[in-house]
Amino acid sequence: MAEPGESVAVRRKTGAATAKPAAGRARAVAAPVAVPVASADAAPGALPVRPGEDPWTDAEVAELQQELDSEAARLRTEIQTSEEAVSGLMRDSGDGAGDDQVDAGTKNISREHELSLAANAREMLEQTERALARLAGTGFGLCESCGQPIGKARVQAFPRATLCVQCKQKQERR
User: Fold this and answer.
1) In sequence order, what are the beta bridge partners of 149?
2) Roughly how many angstroms between the first and final C-alpha of the chain, as a whole number?
3) Distance, CA of 109 to CA of 81 (rounded, Å)
4) How far is the C-alpha of 26 from the C-alpha of 131, rounded, in Å?
5) What is the spatial distance between Cα 83 and Cα 115, in angstroms, rounded to a whole number?
6) Is the dihedral of CA 131, 137, 142, 146 positive or negative?
7) Residue 149 in contact with residue 164, Cβ under 8 Å?
8) Contacts by 160-169 with C-beta closer than 8 Å and gap 24+?
9) Which domains, ranges and CATH numbers included, belong to the chain?
10) Exposed / middle / buried, residue 168 (Cβ in 10 Å: 0-12, 13-18, 19+)
11) What is the mean pLDDT of the chain?
12) Do residues 124 and 131 touch, judged by C-beta distance below 8 A?
């Protein structure tokens, strides 16, 4: 059980269990997931890496931060543009009193397309903002499913990744 004032991070580092193991179950199953680090002398705020990978440098983390920030700004602009286009299409939908079925159908398809683009951009913005929050706090670079490092190359290629390759493959098979 946690000591008063002891944080979750401290319990994870020391290996203190947060719950008693169930009867008949091995202790290893009930123990919290250990948060791996690059090496024993890694900086306290260092991002996790897989065994054999070089630790993150400050320049790499700054580049990652900049990439996520610029992606968030781009997505906000894209959302605003899509919303303006949808607004314009909604205004114009009442003006087509003399439109034939093809014109009405084209307007509907255009409106649905813009709504879909805006929804996709909103979802990507949410993922990007979540990645920025994890980068500023804790959990960035760790798989949300198994707790192991995602892998430096995967994070650099796809900074919004929340699952390691193995867990992502399992998820896609379902």
Assistant:
1) 142
2) 36
3) 17
4) 34
5) 8
6) negative
7) yes
8) 160/68, 160/124, 160/127, 160/128, 160/130, 160/131, 162/130, 162/131, 167/143
9) 59-173 (1.20.120.910)
10) middle
11) 75
12) no
Mean pLDDT of 71-83: 93
> pTM higher than 0.70, yes or no?
no
Q: What average pLDDT score do residues 69-98 get?
A: 82
Q: Which amino acid is at 59?
A: A
| Nearest CA-CA partner of 35 in 150, 122, 170, 169 | 150
CA–CA dist 42, 169 (Å, integer): 30
Looking at residue 114, its amino acid is E
| CB under 8 A, 24+ apart: contacts of 113-121 | 114/82, 114/85, 114/86, 114/89, 115/82, 115/86, 117/78, 117/82, 118/79, 118/82, 118/83, 118/86, 121/75, 121/78, 121/79, 121/82
**How many Å separate Cα 52 from the centre of its chain?**
24
